[in-house]
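quick one before i forget lol
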Amino acid sequence: MKERTLRLDFSEAPLKNRAFSEKPMSFVDEAPKALFGAIIDVVAIETGNRAAREHWQHKQLHNLLQHAAQRSAFWRERIGAKNI
């Protein structure tokens, strides 16, 4: 099995010149923190535990179907409004 090496280098990340916060007791502004959080989300999805990833995908599909059934008569008619 091929071993994967994860390398995180944020030196080229598209951040403004002052990504670090100037507020007291805060290190990074919200926008860069959100960018890094999104990157970590993708890394977790791509490299995480298979069972956890499959559970996450199942819950996302469930949420999507539930949302569609609640908000759309078209989808409610096709998938039903009962326990999805």
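fyi The chain has a mean pLDDT of 80.
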